[in-house]
Specification:
By secondary structure, the chain is of the alpha/beta class. It folds into four domains: about 1-70 and about 185-315, HUPs (Rossmann fold), CATH 3.40.50; about 80-175, Alpha-Beta Complex (Glutamyl-tRNA Synthetase, domain 3); about 320-370; about 380-465, Arc Repressor Mutant, subunit A, CATH 1.10.10.350. It has helices at about 15-30, 50-65, 80-90, 100-115, 185-195, 210-220, 250-255, 260-270, 285-290, 305-315, 320-330, 345-355, 360-370, 380-385, 390-400, 410-420, 425-440, 445-455, 455-465, and strands spanning about 5, 35-40, 70-75, 95-100, 145, 155-160, 160-165, 175, 200-205, 225-230, 235, 300. The strands form five sheets. A three-stranded parallel beta sheet has the order 1-2-3, covered by helices on one side. Strands 4-5-8 form a three-stranded antiparallel beta sheet. Strands 6-7 form a two-stranded antiparallel ribbon. Helix 1 (about 15-30) links the parallel strand 1 and strand 2 (about 35-40). Helix 16 (about 410-420) packs across helix 17. It is elongated, with a radius of gyration of 32 Å. The N and C termini lie far apart (about 80 Å).
Length: about 475
């Protein structure tokens, strides 16, 4: 049997972290078993579905590299097929028309709640042997309900949660077509999973309550029942449901915030799944290791610090040309342009100097921007480190830079020479140089910074301070 999994988002918003993890697990399961991964867009909620949300889902999947083998299929393009299947169920007596008005159903719900009962449809229009139905009212277009079994149990061996049993007495007759004739979400899912040959349905545990209804409809259609795996929700660090303040934003926001897709994927893979103590692994390794037995049934917690740690690792490992192309765009968005002027430092070398210090690509871009434009100076740092007693030593060094062999080693030797001649400690020279050249007192080795900035730029920036003091 060929394994076939699916990811079936509703385009009513962006692809968020929870959806991305579901997509990743479904994708990895198919890849692990040399199966097929199907992308399906469940766009039956016409009022809330938008083309922009569809594109956001496709963009997010593309950025993460979660390629699909079939699709994307759109439910709105399959409406006629759903209606054919509904008619088949009507013809076989497995579905029926219900003429209850909205007001009648609201009144029924009120009575049941007052009596402490679970609100549910009472089956007044359900045809049964020997039962007389009410006269068909005028002016009320009927919905179509599925004739759910009234006895017995629905049970399945959930691949994450274990055995689940739900009594049919807990389930009422689900509406499968609205009064305007459009099929409902739960019914479309059933037909799609059946006709697309889905063998494993991996989805969030907010769908557990839908599963017994869907299983009963699949039985009514004579369809094979897929295996179900319901993933527990993702919580924030505070144990609350994941929200925007925790990171439940569009996956593409992580791109904008400077995360690498490799880091996001690696992080998502460890949200509720584990392979021993392995923390860092490629997607090839993940697909080889992945199974549903090691998914925890308890909720996973989103941890931004852990994501930053992983992102930092992948930045250190990334191809420099790839990083340079990305950082060039990030700098340009801040009106900082690489390659302008003959003395523009080599971006790959600059990135290599700084990437061990950055958690995100945005941090990396911000920290190296001073190489390509004159930075604003931290006034507090300038007051603290650029003092009148240190300026003579800085001027001495600046005069000698003009004729110096330009290498890190020679620059370092000159700083040491000036430090010795003026009876100073190394930081007394290095710190003011950092402020003059980078705008603040934090940077990698000042000799490496000076080398990459270039002789003319270093002398020019130093003179802006020494000539005015």
């Amino acid at each position: 049997m060929t394994i076939r999994t699916r990811f079936a988002p509703s385009p009513t918003g962006f692809l968020h972290i929870g959806g991305a993890r579901t997509a990743l697990f479904s994708w990895a399961y198919a890849r692990k078993h040399a199966g097929q991964f199907i992308l399906r867009i469940e766009d039956t909620d016409v009022a809330r579905s938008t083309p922009e949300a569809v594109q956001a889902i496709l963009d997010g999947m593309g950025w993460l590299g979660l390629s699909w083998d079939e699709g994307p299929f759109y439910q709105m393009q399959r409406m006629e097929r759903y209606k054919e299947v509904i008619q088949k169920l009507l013809n076989e007596g497995k579905a029926y028309h219900c003429y209850s008005s909205k007001e009648e159903l609201e009144a029924l719900r009120e009575r049941q709640m007052q009596q402490g009962l679970k609100p549910r449809y009472d089956g007044r229009w359900r045809p049964e042997a020997g039962k007389s139905l009410p006269p068909i009212p005028e002016g009320i277009p009927p919905v179509i309900r599925f004739k759910n079994p009234q006895t017995g149990m629905v049970n399945w061996q959930d691949m994450v949660k274990g055995e689940i049993n739900i009594s049919n007495e807990e389930l009422d007759d689900l509406i499968i077509a609205r009064a305007d004739g459009t099929p409902t979400y739960n019914f479309c899912v059933v037909v799609d999973d059946w006709e697309m040959g889905i063998t494993q349905v991996i989805r969030g545990d907010d769908h557990v309550n839908n599963t017994p209804r869907q299983i009963n409809m699949l039985h009514a259609l004579g369809a094979d029942i897929p295996q179900y795996a319901h993933l527990s929700m993702i919580l924030g660090n505070d144990g609350q449901k994941l929200s925007k303040r925790h990171g439940a934003v569009s996956v593409m926001q992580y791109d904008e915030d400077g995360y690498l897709p490799e880091a996001v994927l690696n992080y998502l893979a460890r949200l509720g799944w584990s392979h021993g103590d392995d923390e860092i692994f490629s997607m090839d390794q993940f697909c080889a290791w992945f199974d549903l037995d090691h998914i925890t049934p308890s909720a996973a917690q989103f941890n931004t610090e852990k994501l930053n740690w992983l992102n930092s690792h992948y930045i250190k490992q990334a191809d420099l040309a790839y990083l340079a192309a990305d950082i060039t765009k990030r700098l340009a968005s801040k009106s900082v342009f690489v390659g302008v002027g003959n003395s523009s430092p080599d971006l790959q070398k600059v990135i290599d100097l700084y990437r061990d210090r950055a958690n995100t690509l945005n941090e990396l871009a911000d920290s190296i921007a001073y190489f390509y434009h004159m930075p604003a100076v931290d006034e507090a740092a300038a007051i603290k480190h650029i003092t009148s007693d240190i300026l003579p030593a800085i001027k001495t060094m600046a005069d000698q830079l003009a004729s110096l062999e330009w290498s890190v080693e020679v620059i370092h030797a000159l700083i040491n020479q000036v430090v010795t001649e003026h009876e100073l400690k190394f930081p007394k020279i290095a710190m003011p140089l950092r402020v003059m050249l980078t705008g603040n007192a934090q940077s990698p080795s000042i000799d490496a910074v000076m080398y990459l900035l270039g002789r003319d730029e270093v002398i020019s920036r130093i003179k802006k301070f020494t000539d005015t003091h």
